Amino acid sequence: MSHVPTGKPTGKEPAGLRYPTNGKTIYHRPLNRSKTSELSQSSFAYLFSEMVTYAQRRVTGIQELEKRLNNQGHPIGLKLLDLLLIREPARSQTRPLNIISLLQFIKMSLWQHLFGRQADRLEKSSNPDTPDEYMIIDNEPLVNAYISVPREMSQLNCAAFVAGIVEGVCDGAAFPARVTAHSVGGNEDGEMWPGKTVFLLKFQPEVLEREALIASKV
Amino acid sequence: MSYYFAIIGTQDNPLFEYEFGTSKQGGDGQAHFNDQARHLNQFVLHSSLDIVEEVQWTNGQLYLKAIDKFFNNYISCFITGSNVKLLLLHQPPSSPGGGASGLGAAASTRSSTSIAANPTSPQTEEAVKNFFTEVYENYVKATMSPFYRANMEIRSPVFRARVVAAGRKYL
């Protein structure tokens, strides 16, 4: 690899730019990971609890806390979109062109990458007034595994972080949307999934407009 | 054959640009744009963004091939999943006499099959695709840096060196 710069900076580079001593930069590392490279869930849970604490430190309400968690996830989603796309085999490397294929991508590839399994269900809002709302349903979100929400904060769902990741993917793929996480487990007895979470995606009107336009052309 | 390559962010802001020439068939790897054309190139490239936005919804492929032509300038486009556009302007050498026929026999057969002389031939498309694919991979690596935020200019000299190498290898 003759084009790899050596440790010596040339005249054009700003002073103070340093290379790692072994000469390996982020560009020397492969983008593909083997399937078995998983992280330990306990270390993630520890890190995530710190993230929630950090977000909680300077907020006044639950909405603001969820907004902060959402913001923490957003850049991850933007980056994961390209990373997951480039890991696809060359034949099936396609950008999602409509909402359904975007949701499929999120449900299958994104969930598989983040949580090692697919999301449980996709739904479209049955309310005719809100055709722009879609739902991704996860019966037991991994991020909430070790989180117990105090009674006075029962509105809070820390999966807002995951909602932020999903929102980042949507925004990146040019489907701007608001994504929020809602607990729907309920407290009745016999509920099979007490931690059930719905990710509500509300797309911007221009997305639906474009969708109709594309559908009419085909 | 001269090339002008730019990466355009989602806000139509340039993230990276690079001018180079062909290294195939004795090319010196230097761009031969005149001073006026160098300013014009940026306009031509950005004006093709309108066409990108039309084409990108008809076709889910990342590589959109040659999408625009302005006189002797051809624009090829590669669009990433997160709507960042990789655009390449290529300008075949304008040969006197309006084509390869004006040149000597040996030179004409060689230049008529070269990717430089045929900006729309399948060989050129393939070469440009390989170039884009390699740059795309490095672009994704650049975005993997935790300090990189969307639509930031890419300043890394390593990235630039990689683009230069890809240009030399394929174009």
UniProtKB/TrEMBL annotation, chain A:
Domain of life: Eukaryota
Residue segments, region Disordered: 1-28
Gene Ontology cellular-component terms listed: endoplasmic reticulum; TRAPPI protein complex; TRAPPII protein complex; TRAPPIII protein complex
Pfam families: TRAPP (PF04051)
Signal peptide: none
Assigned keywords, A-Z: Endoplasmic reticulum, ER-Golgi transport, Golgi apparatus, Transport
Protein's UniProt keywords contain Kinase: no
Example GO BP: endoplasmic reticulum to Golgi vesicle-mediated transport
Localization annotation: Endoplasmic reticulum; Golgi apparatus, cis-Golgi network
Gene3D superfamilies on file: Trafficking protein particle complex subunit 3 (3.30.1380.20)
InterPro entries linked to this entry: NO_sig/Golgi_transp_ligand-bd, TRAPP-I_su5, TRAPP_component
Keyword Transport: yes
Subunit record text: Part of the multisubunit TRAPP (transport protein particle) complex.
Function: Plays a key role in the late stages of endoplasmic reticulum to Golgi traffic.
Family: Belongs to the TRAPP small subunits family. BET3 subfamily.
Protein name: Trafficking protein particle complex subunit
Higher taxonomy: Eukaryota, Fungi, Dikarya, Ascomycota, Pezizomycotina
Automatic annotation (TrEMBL), chain B:
Record Pfam families: Sedlin_N (PF04628)
GO biological-process terms attached to the record: endoplasmic reticulum to Golgi vesicle-mediated transport
Gene Ontology cellular component list: cytoplasm
Lineage: superkingdom: Eukaryota
Matches recorded under PANTHER family: TRAFFICKING PROTEIN PARTICLE COMPLEX SUBUNIT 2
Protein's name in the database: Sedlin
Organism: Lasiosphaeria ovina
